[in-house]
Amino acid sequence: MKVNVEVDCTPEEARRFLGLPDVSKANEAYVDAVVKAMQGGSLDQLHALSKQLAPMGEIGMSLFKQFMGAAATAGGKKG
Description:
By secondary structure, the chain is mostly helical.
């Protein structure tokens, strides 16, 4: 048996319903720090920053690319 439930709500409503914490202020601080780090930085500095931000460094980025490629391929199939 397969049951589908569709819920129409905003991301904020979903966050509250699931009891997840509000991390909007932390996200704003994080984005501001990244923007400041990227402004005026050399290409080498930006590359080093991107490696630090990616989980598990380059291995994590490689796995993410593979995941996104597989998702894009599967997205075109209908079953």
